Amino acid sequence: MANFDRAFIDQVLSSTDIVDVIKEKVNLTKNGTNFKGLCPFHSEKTPSFNVSSSKQFYHCFGCGAHGDAIKFIQEHDNLTFIEALTKLAQAAGLELPEKTKKNDTYYNLFISNKLAAEFYSRSLENNSEAKTYLENRGIDQGMIEAFHLGLSNNKWDDLTNLFSKEKIINNAIEAGLVIKSNNKTYDRFRNRIMFPIRNSTGNIIGFGARIYNSDDGAKYLNSPETKLFHKSYELYGLYECKKDIAKEKSVIIVEGYTDVIGLYKSGIKNCVATLGTAFTKFHFNKIKRYTNKIIFCFDGDAAGKSAAWKAITNCLPELKDEIQLYLIFLPEGCDPDSYIKEEKDNFDNLINNPMPLSEYIIEHLGTDIDIKTVEGKTSFALEAKKVLNQMPDIMYTDILREKIQQMTGNVILKKIQATNDKEKITSSDTSQEFDIKELTLLNLLIEYPMLVKEFDCENIITEKTLINIYNVIREEISKNENFTAAHLLKLFPNNEAVRSIVTFESNEKSEDAARVTIQEIFHQLELSSKEKVYFELLNRYTDGQTLSEKEREFIKNFKK
């Protein structure tokens, strides 16, 4: 049985949202900042089972059951600790460590980062120039200690010598702290202020590094991707600020390390930053564990506006009715750190009166469009259609659609709504749902019969009813190249599935355009098929079934 170190356990818990885990087993409803439902561990009529998103903990006031996500899976699914841990690790996409603590990669990475952070901290304490630089930036000793700031000296071998002396240089290389090239090893970070990056449980998983007295090299450097550190998942300041996020019931998303520290010092402690990357859906799903109100703070220049739209579009597919998104834009040339020092009252006013997501979407879509004209309304509606199609089927989407209706008119909106509501279309005679991609595929083959010879769709289409229709289409076209939708309707006069296919508007105006669309559908359906196999194999594995070498290799390489 594997001997998992606490470091790996913490990594699994940090990468897992207990609310999402329990929601798969228990019907939960929002109850203030927590969730409540009927306890799965004893019989009750009044909900007493509570789940805390911020604390990542559950507790039943009826029977006393309590614990973290691992404990829940262990008790609910009747699994051993190792089995429950393995199940959650695989769901989080984490590679299982070696069987001994000595070879536990996660443990070694945690220890390496901890040793480096301690070394950087000592280096900063002994460097008056670096401390003066931070003081001039408004970062005093209290902030240095709160965020465990440090310094990498202007040397090539500080950490190299430290880890060589401890005989763990390979661990430092794997952590990205030391680089090995052409049989030479040297420090990755030199002459930079060091910002330790912690996961939600407080373990250091990487570093951000900023030049402070030189123009040599990039302004910021981050640790490379490791088994612990993934920039698209992590948020700077989350560990330090999560209690204040819960207290304020909101979070402010900024772009830089010093912005987080500057706001923190000024009393705004519910703040986190991305790590030099765009705000991703993974960031969104992580931060919503702690609050339902998310405020994005961007620079008011072109780059800031571009970053804002990218962040929002990344969030749109993950939206839920209970999540509120807002935006604020600082005056051009200002960043949060400098602006709050110079214009504290104005900054507070922006935070207290942020722009709602709906208003921002409409404003962005309407840029350079005269909505008073027919042409402008059409352009606006087409752009709105793209946004609405990215959003889930929730009340918020419906209300936003109604708002756009007031601006564009019923006729245009109905066309938008018709395309937005159709991820699946139902055949009324069988009550069966069909994937829109498969309907599009069949519609294009009828519209451009010559493409039937180029694409074999029998193993791509999943629905039995549609497979049968496809086989008929293929057979008829082989006999009659002038086969049309009218012919198909004659063969199936009362079939609602066929009616859905032939009446569906695919919008491709040429055979070449149809060919490109079909190729993309093939790609998407193949991915979907592989994804289905992936999760089936995972379920078999977590149920204790033995997988073949080929199946294990498939799981290993799937996400790559």
Defining traits:
single chain; 560 residues; alpha+beta; DNA Primase, Chain A; DNA primase DNAg catalytic core, N-terminal domain; Dna Topoisomerase Vi A Subunit, Chain: A, domain 2; 5-stranded antiparallel beta sheet
Question: How would you sum up this structure, described in words?
Answer:
This protein is of the alpha+beta class. The chain folds into five domains: 75 residues, Alpha-Beta Complex (DNA Primase, Chain A), CATH 3.90.580.10; 122 residues, DNA primase, catalytic core, N-terminal domain (DNA primase DNAg catalytic core, N-terminal domain); 125 residues, Dna Topoisomerase Vi A Subunit, Chain: A, domain 2; 56 residues, no CATH class; 136 residues, DNAb Helicase, Chain A, CATH 1.10.860. It is 49% helix and 13% strand. Strands 1-2-3-4-5 form a five-stranded antiparallel β-sheet. Strand 1 and strand 2 form a beta hairpin. The relative contact order is 0.05. About 4% of the residues have low confidence.
